[in-house]
Design goal:
The complex is a heterodimer. Chain A contains four helices and seven strands, in the order ααβαβαβββββ. By secondary structure, chain A is of the alpha/beta class. Chain A has two domains: 8-115, Transcription Regulator spoIIAA; 121-179, Beta Barrel (OB fold (Dihydrolipoamide Acetyltransferase, E2P)), CATH 2.40.50. Chain A has a five-stranded mixed barrel. A two-stranded parallel ribbon of chain A has the order 1-2. In chain A, α3 (52-65) packs parallel to α4. The longest helix of chain A is centred in the middle third of the chain and has 24 residues, at 92-115. Chain A starts with 7 loop residues before the first helix and ends with a strand. By secondary structure, chain B is an alpha/beta fold. Chain B has two domains: 2-108, 3-Layer(aba) Sandwich (Rossmann fold); 117-243, Transcription Regulator spoIIAA (2-Layer Sandwich), CATH 3.30.750.210. In chain B, the strands form three sheets. Chain B has a four-stranded parallel β-sheet. In chain B, β2 (63-68), α3 (69-81) and β3 (87-88) form a beta-alpha-beta unit. The radius of gyration of chain B is 19 Å and the shape is globular. Chain B starts with a helix and ends with a helix. The chains are: A alpha/beta, B alpha/beta. Chains A and B meet through α2, β1, β2 and β3 of A and β8, α8 and β9 of B. β1 (38-45) of chain A pairs parallel with β9 of chain B.
């Protein structure tokens, strides 16, 4: 779900037609309806006029909502868009710093969420073999952007095969497990 | 990515040898499919074009064609800046590219693609364009307004993918939740999900890119009821190439 921002002044400037409170309600409603759903979002750092308080607001929201995954991009000033009329007033390095700041908040959350998976069994799809280990994904992980589940086994697995894996170790963005 | 797969499928049907991102340097014509979404993606696209132009100058290539969002958006400037490129195409000019190859656009090939991903998963583009007016976003300039593909067509495409070995499909569009509003005058993502979940052999269906405003809550019901729909929501604008 590409939220792009959380702070109300920014949501308004971005013309997102939604408020922080409405986003919070939506996330709660989705989770109530589908418990255990994996939610991923992307955010933009450094939109024209963004204040440090806006960035803090994003971080507070991430702590509160605890998304499974978050991607942060720095604002890119594009001709032809309505934001092009605004002044691109935040320097590139500062945009990067803010993006990094938000990502660090999420990194801890992602690690904790992954640690909660240790000991649990997931059905995974095998993607490929690399350096003697298999790389697979759970229902909650899409291609290229999400967690990979690393499987060490002597059994021969084929790409596209589904197997059950018990998670033994958790990292920031990857999991390790054994066949069950 | 899906656009490249459709183009390659059409070329192949016209008996033209085609490969995705071949490491070999023995081809005659290269088509660069570009992204024009944000600064980083534009830079990457331009570097790729320049690399190919370099190969052409060294005599290792006959022709370089460029298509996709970047050339849709900046064709005039690019033609002047990189005159070594033999032809530029916009995002809706597939038949014109084929003509350059003396190939015909075959409408009967709906859903026929030469996959660039491993054979067990594939992307399924359910709509093109976006009617939202987010202040920062250049997508509507390059991809136009929202156009949904009909449900039957998408089911047929999914069935073809499954027959070729695909077990997991990722539904993509610039904006999934708007699906159906243009074509059927109402949001029909839930109906589409149900129809796709009925495709035998399709193990996982994954949903990418859902805009939060006016989120159609009925899709959650389908997600819960159908085992082969992953409980997963995302936007992965990360590699913006996937978006285009």
């Amino acid at each position: 779900m590409p939220l792009q921002h959380i702070a109300d002044p920014m949501l308004k400037a971005m013309k997102r037609q939604i408020t922080r409170a409405e986003i919070l309600d939506l996330v709660k409603a989705i989770r109530a309806e589908v418990p255990g759903i994996c939610l991923r979002t992307t955010l933009i750092a450094g939109f024209p006029g963004e204040t440090l308080e806006d960035v803090e607001d994003v971080k507070r929201f991430l702590e509160e909502v605890r998304f499974d995954r978050v991607g942060v991009f720095t604002y890119s000033h594009e001709e032809g868009t309505s934001a092009y009329a605004l002044e691109d007033n935040i320097p590139a390095e500062e945009k990067e710093r803010r993006a990094q700041d938000i990502m660090e908040t999420q990194q801890e959350i992602s690690l904790e969420k992954n640690q909660e998976k240790v000991g649990k069994v997931f059905r995974v799809i095998v993607d490929k073999k690399e350096s003697g280990r298999y790389l697979a994904r759970t229902e909650f992980d899409s291609v290229e952007v999400d967690n990979e589940v690393i499987i060490n086994t002597d059994r021969k697995l084929k790409p596209g095969e589904f197997v059950n894996v018990k998670i033994t170790k958790a990292f920031d963005y990857d999991l390790e497990g054994e066949l069950v | 990515m899906v656009d490249s797969e459709v183009l390659s499928g059409q070329l192949k049907a016209n008996d033209i040898d085609v490969v995705h991102e071949s490491a070999k340097k023995d081809h005659n014509i290269v088509v660069v499919n570009t992204c024009g979404f944000i600064d980083k993606a534009k830079e990457e696209s331009i570097n790729t074009i320049l690399d190919q132009v370099d190969l052409k100058k060294k005599g290792k290539l006959d022709k370089v064609y460029v298509t996709g969002c970047l050339s849709e958006r900046y064709r005039g400037d690019l033609e002047q800046e990189i005159p070594e490129v033999d032809a530029w195409f916009g995002t809706m000019e597939l038949p014109l590219i084929l003509k350059k190859f003396d190939a015909d656009y075959k409408a009967e090939l709906i859903g026929e693609r030469l996959l660039s991903t491993p054979s067990h998963y594939a992307y399924l583009k359910i709509a093109e364009g976006c009617n939202r007016t987010c202040a920062f976003c250049a997508i509507p300039i390059m991809r136009g307004t929202h156009v949904s593909k009909p449900i039957e067509e998408l089911v047929a495409e999914a069935e073809k993918l499954v027959r070729s070995g695909v077990k997991e499909i990722m539904l993509i569009a610039q904006e999934l939740t708007y699906y159906g509003l243009d074509l059927y005058k109402k949001r029909r993502l839930a109906d589409l999900m149900n129809a796709l979940a009925d495709v035998k052999g399709l193990e996982w269906i994954r949903l990418h890119y859902a805009y939060p405003t006016k989120f159609p809550m009925e899709i959650l019901e389908v997600m819960k009821q159908r085992d082969n729909i992953c409980n997963y929501w995302t936007c992965l604008c990360s590699t913006s190439l996937i978006l285009c």
